[in-house]
Amino acid sequence: MSKILISYRREDSADVTGRIYDRLIQVFPQSVFRDVDSIPLGVDFRTYLDEQVAKCDVFLAVIGRDWMMAKGRKGKSRLEDPGDFVRIEIESALKRQIPVIPVLVAGAKIPEAQRLPASIQDVSYRNGIVVRPDPDFHKDMDRLIAHLKQLVRGLSKPQAEPTTQSKPVLAARQHESPAVPVDMVKVPQGPFLYGDEKAREKVERGYWIDKDLVTNENYRTFIEADGYRNQAYWSSGGWQWKTKHGVTVPEFWNDRAWNKVDHPVVGVSYYEAEAYAKWASKRLPTEQEWKQAVRGEDRRQFFEKVGNVWEWCASWYDESQGQLVVRGGYSIHESMGLRASIRSGYTSFNQIFLLSFRLAQDIS
Fold this sequence. Notes:
Layout: E1 4-7, H1 10-27, E2 32-33, H2 45-54, E3 58-63, H3 85-95, E4 100-104, E5 129-130, H4 137-154, E6 184-187, E7 190-194, E8 199-203, E9 207-210, H5 216-224, H6 236-245, H7 270-279, H8 287-295, E10 310-316, E11 324-327, E12 343-346, E13 355-356, E14 360-362
Parallel strand pairs: 1-2, 1-3, 3-4, 4-5, 10-13
Antiparallel strand pairs: 6-9, 7-8, 9-14, 10-11, 11-12
Helix pairs in contact: 2-3, 6-7
């Protein structure tokens, strides 16, 4: 059984770490270690801590606002002390190339590398996850747990070689998911009728799909977790495009007309949408899945979630593969443009204000 070790400072984040631990042991029973509660007398604690870290497969570094500010007996930062327990644990995990995930709590951010001892500066470049207080705590923990499930399963699997393809690569369907994903609805496999000609289509496998579009608040978590700096979440074409054009946020991120926290995030390219999806351990729906979810069992022509913005789908618009499908229409269109059958296509790097997305996930 893979083991997850949680490292934290008691004076910085004991309470929230306790809640995190309680959630994790429900999913990974007897495989989560919060910290070393007791060190045997007479042993070298540096060696002992190193041995404990060596037994874990995933290392969670819980970082609160005072994580770096903690002082030792002489008034210096505890991180400057080579004998600091937290520093020893992180050094051991990095040395052993164990995945280190910063878990940011109480409004903390990833510490700047230059402010850390050289031996643990790599922590600043590890993608972290924000765990907020209620009412968002369990939603954030669901996302962390989904990441951990994927990471624990993949530890012994060879990593795919990076592709040099410039076009977006439509992600393969994942076949694992939490039992009941938060804020998603279940869509069963099977046939359905679609379009004005009532064409018969069939989805071969059931899936979950988001009830709502990804909001600015949702997307902010991705940005604050350094999603734009972690190449692991981006396709090769997406990373090249983002780097070349210096993209760090969606096009209308700082526009007051579009950035209300509970409104759909807009001005998002396909590259950005698929990076967010990978970070969230989900994916973009295919056009067929989007159609089935919108059509529903009552074969409706209009859908209550249609009409806000266009939504990216993980399907090519035509055989030329120059554009990707968008669905949903936009409220400036006449009613015929808001029919569930309406479709269009955009290039993967387009960031116009009409573009947003929702996510899908396979049923395990």
